[in-house]
Amino acid sequence: RRLPDQIQEFIDGKRDALPQVIETPMLREYSQKLVERLEQQVREVTTVNAELQEADRLKNQFLATFSHELRTPLTSILGYVELLERGTLGALTPMQREAISVISRNTNTLTTHVNNLLYLQEVRSSQLKRAPIAIHEMLQRLLTEIRPRAAEGGVELLAHIPAVTPYNGDSMVLEQSFRNVIDNAVKFTPDRGSVQVILNDDLARLIVQVKDTGIGIPANAVDKIFLPFYQVDNSLARPYPGVGIGLAIVKHAIEAHHGHVIVRSEPGVGSAFTIVLPRK
Ligand code: ADP
Questions:
Q1: Residue 275 pLDDT more than 70?
Q2: Which residues, 6 or more positions from 168, have their beta carbon under 8 angstroms from its beta carbon?
Q3: pTM
Q4: Does ligand 1 have an atom closer than 6 angstroms to the CB of 249?
Q5: Widest CA span of the chain, in angstroms?
Q6: How far is it, in rounded angstroms, from Cα 83 to Cα 17?
Q7: How far is the CA of 174 from the centre of ligand 1 (A)?
């Protein structure tokens, strides 16, 4: 039997001891071949890795360009819808008013998706633009914005938002992060459920809690929900709108502020998202 075969049998555990006579030149040749094979594999993995990185870069570039291109016409549509809603372009019949309100709602949803795509790229690549923010006012504004959506779905929106001293953060990304978490809570909570938004300030950090009595998240999915495009239910027939990037933005945005997000959830009972933002 060839010595390399015998050594291989030893490595595979098919023989108890190495052959008695190990001829050094043969062993050298054998290890030389092994090294060559390993080097070849490293080269292959490096090439594949570079190709994946390039594909990822192109995907991100595509998302950034595409969302940018979508936002321009959307802004113009929203502007005209607002003029129509306000009656600036003439009085509307009740049926026209109804139609405009459907167009307005759907355009707003579309704008949120497009903004999320843009924010994901921004949060990943650019520096935070920090300035003092009255977080309680930001949360109150968001609740006013989201309340009609909650009411439509029969979800009660409760809040405990005391005034807190200004927080030094990036208002655009923080606002989008809070919006995403509260939007999700409302979206994944069935009729007659409730969503609670609680703000706490322990001087060293701000804590924003969003608790819902919704469908909950299976234990094996809790770690994955922050990955871009991950959704627990990704079937085309799923009843919930969304593209799965809201929480990816939240994670990037909060970690960029040196904070973190804690999720507690029980399927069928509800979820609680806690955003912790250190002041330093
Ligand atoms: P999207 O809401 O657009 O699907 P997100 O990134 O915001 O994307 O959330 C990812 C997934 O995490 C959701 O699709 C859903 O499965 C789960 N999820 C997030 N928030 C909640 C929540 N409050 N209750 C139940 N599931 C949630």
A1: yes
A2: 130, 131, 132, 133, 279
A3: 0.76
A4: no
A5: 101
A6: 87
A7: 18
C-alpha separations of 267 from 73, 85, 193, 242 in Å: 40, 41, 14, 20
Compute the distance from residue 183 Cα to the ligand 1 centre, in Å.
9
Tally Cβ neighbours within 10 Å of residue 261. 18
Backbone angles phi, psi at 267, to 5 degrees: -55, 135
Q: For residue 116, which atom of ligand 1 is closest to its CA? A: 3
Which atom from ligand 1 is nearest to the alpha carbon of 212?
23
Rounded distance between C-alpha atoms, residue 233 and residue 213, angstroms: 18
Instruction: Establish whether residue 217 lines the binding site of ligand 1, counting it when its CB lies within 6 angstroms of any ligand atom.
Output: yes
Distance 240 CA to ligand 1 centre (A): 9
Higher pLDDT, 31 or 217: 217
Reported residue count of the chain is: 280
Q: Within 13 Å and on the Cβ side, how many CA atoms surround 71?
A: 14
- 270 CB less than 6 Å from ligand 1? no
Residue type, 164: V
How close is the Cα of 15 to the center of ligand 1, in Å? 54
Residue 70 CA, ligand 1 centroid: distance in Å: 24
Predicted confidence band of residue 127 (pLDDT cuts 50, 70, 90): confident
Q: Which atom of ligand 1 is nearest to the CA of 231?
A: 14
**How many other CB atoms are there within 10 angstroms of residue 230's CB atom?**
15
Give the atom of ligand 1 at the shortest distance from the alpha carbon of 234: 14
**Closest alpha carbon to 206 in 142, 160, 275, 252:** 275
Q: How much of the chain, in percent, has pLDDT values that exceed 70?
A: 98
| pLDDT 10s digits, 163-200 | 999 999 999 889 999 999 999 999 999 999 999 999 99
